[in-house]
Amino acid sequence: MRKQLKGVDPAVFWGSAALIAVFVVWGLVGPASLGSVMATSLNWVIGNFGWAFVLIAFAALVFCVFLVVSPYGGLRLGPDDSRPQFSTFSWVSMMFAAGLGAGLLFYGVAEPVTHWSAPPHGLAEPRSEEAALVALRYTYFHWGFNGWAMYAILGGAMAYFSFRRGLPVQVSAVFTPVLGPNAMQRPIGRLIDALAIVATLFGTATALGLNGLQLNSGLDYLFDVPKSNAVAVLIIVVVTALFILSATSGVERGINFLANLGSFATIALFLFFLVVGGSTVLVISQGIESIGNYVIQVIPMSLQTGVGDEKWMASWTIFYWAWWISWAPFVGMFVARISRGRTIREFVIGVVAAPTGFGFLWFAVTGGVGIELQRTGAADIVGSLATPELSLFTALDALPFPVLSSALCVVLIALFFISGADAAAIVMATMASRGSLEPSKVVVVVLGVLMGGIACAMLLVGGLTALQQAAVLGSVPFTFVLIGVAWCWLKAMREDTHAERSSPTSGERATKEQVEAGAEAER
Amino acid sequence: MRRRTPLARVLVAATAVVALAACGEANDESGASQQPQGAALRVTLGTQEFPEARVLGELWRQALAVNGYAVDLRKGVGPAEELDQELQDGTIDGYVAYTGTVLSVVAGQEVSGLDPEATYAAAKEFYAGQDMVMSEMTPFENKDAIATTTTFAEDNDLTGIGDLADVGLFTLGARAEFEDLTLGLAGLRDVYGLTDVEFAPLDLGDQYAALDTGEAQAVDAFTTDPQLDGGDYRILDDPERLFGSQNVVMVVGEDDLERVDATAFMDVVDAVNATLDEETMVRLNAEVLAGTSDETVAREFLRSRGLDRPLRS
């Protein structure tokens, strides 16, 4: 026992466990009260600090552009002679699976069709040709560069401090330039790490629960499997068993394999939509134009605060930004883990542009086909928007081979679902184990079971949405963490390049000192 | 390891117990999603099948869409009882309602004798008791009325329905069920003393042809029938308000309204409703009858009134 748990930081582990317990017990005892308190707080934060989210999403993007063009871009996330551990395809696939995956499948059709029927900021006449372009552009925006820029900052900084400075992979480790070499032991550092675990657990547990419901809907649609809590819980139990199996086989094998499989299947589905969607030429033209529009307008779009249109901003753009930030500790750390040996330039471009680039192609095709199906009356997608998880199936139903393609989608959702939960369990175990890259399997299993258990319990009492809102509320403290991370990273990179310039060996020495400090911290 | 595994087992067992306890319950969070969605700005509206109801639904849907609300408009739900039932079930969030119908059919109250304001107030109060909210009403109303040809009215010096009692035997054409309704021939007999009447059942929409051919001297019409616009017909006054008042409102669930930002949402609906006087509605109905789609009619009207741009507070 002691051997198995020796890496665990008791303060962080039990502190976050206590915080989680408070929310879970609250959710079990009074799901309605938890729900109303969370909804009210979230509305208040989003309503009053929407501008701050807009500003940080914009600043994150600018910071990433700066990293790419500045000399810091040449620094490597690891010793100067280190090289990437994963092939670029696997690397992108894993980021894609952890960060986007199932979301693309669920909202690939629903979001563009929603914006097309009610264009944001009154930018186009609803349901017009122009509205289709605006709809696609705003979908890219919400799933695009800004969100991944926030992941890149957190992930890049963690990778930098752990692989180049030899510190453990922890959010708190990034703060060593301001908090001193023992940042991980200081109360504030431990608080940050505990918050990261809580945000990750809530985020992934609710995703697990909601995905269970969504898979249930898909199976109901396909095979008339009844929609009930019992079935959803059964799905969650099976998925939990599968991801624990995958997680204990190690990040190199489990996630990598699942993510690559998922990527191939997504590409197959993408081609299916493109070829049999029935409007190939239109979809390609619209895709080119709308992606072009997005790339050209991303900066002005990022600065839009939507004066006079606050309600729309709050329920779309601002909510997205808060949601991306709440997932940043999880995806950021996961991305950091798999990025050792890449240069900062390569890393930032890879993280910000690669998964999103594929996401754009995906949205252009599924969204374009969805809009065409609705416009021609072949499928009533607007009618299925109330259950967005079904809108993909509604669209597939109007295309050839509906059973085959829907079944592929269900499998794909399950794949992303498993690889996402797998990544989350490993990340949380790392966070709880003082940033160890090889956390004890027992810790992974315990956290995995906890995640599945919370998902089932909350599903049964009807508290999933409330827990999800609690997770998104976690974006508030993380907004400050993100700003601090960017500052510390910048500071460290400046020292790094400065040291290199003044004497070629001192950089090496600094790294060694940090490794020793880190090793001491481990003890 | 030895101590940890039982803990994990306990967790799994506890989950299983809760799961069994809740077996069979339908899951109620199917609308919730893993990723954020503008769920808050999504509304499902229902409307009946006849042209006017479809145009009204389209007017609201399009005006709301311009203001960022994604509306799923379900046309052809109805009659009123069914729309109310779907609203209570949560299948729809709101519907196109006629105040008098709400009061008579849904609430089961007396409507004869009530002016538009009184009808609106009573219907609003009824729905408020069920946690439903009503928008402002339209200036126009669409209610039953008795119509004759202009010539027949002039020859017999007719201005109100009561004057028909002095005409002698005449034929009244209307949909079949009209004969026995209180808001129909039965009521006309009691309130206006129309006893010397022969009843001719007609299909809905054939009334004006019946007047033209002389098959009937008077018919039951609707006040926004587009035929009234072009033909040579006269609507007789209903001083006793036998047919009550039938202005249009949107009825929407209070919770749904809270979710979509009540003020902004209702501002859009009220702005649309305020433009709809009787002349306008008759014209819009005429356009649909002439073969233009309800969608196009609504779009062009909103454009002409500047409601194709977002309202800004």
Walk me through this protein's architecture.
The complex is a heterodimer of chains A (523) and B (313). The model of chain A is unreliable at 504-523 (pLDDT under 50). Chain A is 77% helix and 0% strand. Chain A is globular and about 65 Å long. In chain A, 59% of the residues are buried. Chain A is an all-alpha fold and 523 residues long. In chain A, α1 (10-29) packs across α2 (31-69), α2 (31-69) crosses α13 (317-337) and α6 packs across α19. Chain B has 313 residues and is α/β, with parallel strands linked by helices. Chain B contains 13 helices and 10 strands. Chain B has helices spanning 4-21, 51-66, 80-89, 99-106, 116-128, 150-155, 185-192, 207-213, 227-230, 254-259, 262-274, 278-289, 294-304, and strands at residues 42-47, 70-75, 94-98, 132-134, 144-149, 170-174, 197-201, 218-222, 233-236, 248-253. In chain B, strands 2-1-3-10-4 form a 5-stranded mixed sheet, with helices on both faces. Chain B has a 5-stranded mixed sheet with strand order 7-6-8-5-9. In chain B, 47% of the residues are buried. The chains are: A mainly alpha (523), B alpha/beta (313). At the A-B interface, α4, α8, α9, α12 and α13 of A face α1, α2 and β2 of B.
Number of helices of chain B: 13
Helix content of chain B: 40-55%
Q: Tell me the number of helical segments of chain A per DSSP (H or I, 4 or more residues long).
A: 20
Main sheet attributes: strand count, strand direction, barrel closure of chain A: none
Which spans of chain A of ≥5 residues are poorly predicted at pLDDT below 50? 504-523
Helical/strand content category of chain B: alpha/beta
Q: How many strands of chain A?
A: 0
Give the helices and strands of chain A as they follow along the chain. Answer: HHHHHHHHHHHHHHHHHHHH
The total strand number of chain B stands at: 10
Mean pLDDT of chain A comes to 85
Span from first to last CA of chain B? 63 Å
Query: Structural class of the secondary elements of chain A?
Result: mainly alpha
How large a portion of the residues of chain A is in β-strands, by DSSP E?
under 5%
Strand order of the largest sheet of chain B: 2-1-3-10-4
Mean pLDDT of chain B: 85
